[in-house]
Structures are given as C-alpha cells and as structure tokens.
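Students often ask why we bother encoding 3D structure as a string. The short answer is that it lets us treat folding as translation between two languages. Here is a chain of 327 residues written in the first language.
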Amino acid sequence: MIGNVRRRVALGMIGSGSIVGTLGPFSHSAGAASPAAVTPGAPPREKAGPAAMKQSAAMRRAYADGPYGQIHYLDAGTGRPLVMLHQAVMTANQFDYVFAPLIARGLRPIAIDMPGFGLSDRTPFEPAVSDYAPVVPAVLDALGISRAAVVGHHTGALVTNEVAIRYPERVSANILCGPLFISDEQRAALIADIGGRERAFRALPHAAHMNQLAEARERYANGSISAERISDYVVQAMLAVQRGAYWYGHNAGLNYRQEEALMKITQPTLLLTNTGDMLYASALQARKMRPDFAFTELEGGGIDIVDQQPGPWSAAIADFLAAAAID
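And here it is in the second language, the structure alphabet:
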C-alpha cells in the first residue's frame, strides 16, 4: 500500500578520513581540521545551493508499508529504476542535485528515507545494517517493480551491500559509494567516541546545538556548499534528533563488518568514489578485494560529492549501467 496520508519524521551518513574524525560529520569536534573538499589548484566552483530543490520537483513523494511502519520515498515515476540509499544522518533529499541528471539519462530515481530517517518510521529497536535492507523490496513491491539497480552512499553503501546478498533476485546491479573497512581497534574507538557523543546529543539554549551541526558541516564542505544547503543539512539532521534515531545510522555502520559481505555480492557492481572522500582508502581496498568490480573515482570533493559534482557523479552511474546493459 502507498499512502500520502500520514507523515513521519527522522533520518541517516557515514564518513571517515582521519579515521577518527570519521563517521560523524555532524559529531565533528569543534576546532578539528577540515577534510579537504576542494582540490588544490582547481578552478573555483559555484557553490551547491538552493537550486537543488528545483531539481527534485519532478520527484513524487509517497509511502509504502514496510516491516517497521511507513517508508517514505521520492519517485521519478518513469525510466529504468534506480533505488537510492542515503548516508546517515541525512534523508532521501541528500540526492536532490542528482535527480535531474539521472532522469536525463533515462533513469528512474527512487530515493528512500531509511527507517528512523527522513519521514520514515524508525525501527522499534536498535537497528543493525541488515535491519535496513528489507525496506528496499518493500518499496519495490509497492511500485510493482521486480528488479532495480541500487546505489548507496556511505551508510547507504553498507545497506546496499546487504540488500544485494539478502535479496539477490531483486537487484540488477549495485553502486557502492563508500565501503567501510576499519580495524577492530578503530571500530572500538569510534563507537566510544562518535557513538557516545551522538547518544548524548541534546537540544541547547538558543539553538546552540544546531549551530554546532552547521559549523561541523561547513568544515567538511570547506567552502564548496552554500549556506542555504548547509541549513538544509541541519534540518535533515534535526529530524533524526527529533525522531530519537540520530545515532542509529553511525552505530549500525560502525558495527558492520563488510569484508565478508563484499565477497558475497554476485551482481554487476560499480565502486564509485572520490579522492577527497573520507572513505577513499576503503574504496581502494575494496577494489583490491573485488577486481571484477567496475571502478570510478572523481577528483577531489568530500562527503558531499553528490552536491559538489552532481554531473560527473550521475554520469558515472548512468555510464556503468549502460555499459553493463542493466535494465
């Protein structure tokens, strides 16, 4: 069933670079160094800004019934289906800038708010990455789609991996933007650091907590994202806070061990990365582990690559699906 009757709120993003400022762009400690988002010597770019909202106008909002309640998603309606899974702590609107170029290439973006994020109901328990996977077939069933390509960014890439191995008959191809490989020592440190701070995150007088989120995202964007879009990032994060799911995505991602899962993927797969991404090193490791996967890297950028380079990012996906003859 699809119904636009009830509205729900909450949200999901994963990042790493120095891997201890890693998975928490919204948890980044004050005064920490900014990840490089702009390639040295590169010509100045126009900042990603509010024009993104216009690009999502062609997307229809709808709900599907899922295993934990309602699943909210955006759907282009026509074209070759491409399910899109966002990073924590964002929503399907992470992809606002790439809907138009994907549609122009004949694709049908179907961007899902994962449980506890955006307008989707949260899980009634602390979720693992595998618990997010069932929402994909639920949305495909609601739309009457038997198979689709799936792209995931950071946290979404981990969920994409799980969807591929749990529901192989529903997935025609995968695009992984940000696999995650960390040592047990790093994992424990990150769970204690980021997990602890995200669980403790609370509203502060004069909306100081929102200022903290904005400042963190500005450091990560390094001047490449407009103030309007940064504000939008904060709104998405605050939905997660309101929903009580703020820490869910990173907690699930940090506890996920992708080494074995990556080796179980059987569908055509593209590793899509960018050299300025926090998880760039993990993408290179994944390439060594799976030399049969296609590989594309974009120069520079950061965790906001879909806003910083929407054209090249979209083209990489469309070119891969065309070359692999994916319907």
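Translate back mentally: The chain has a mean pLDDT of 86. Keep this in mind for the problem set.
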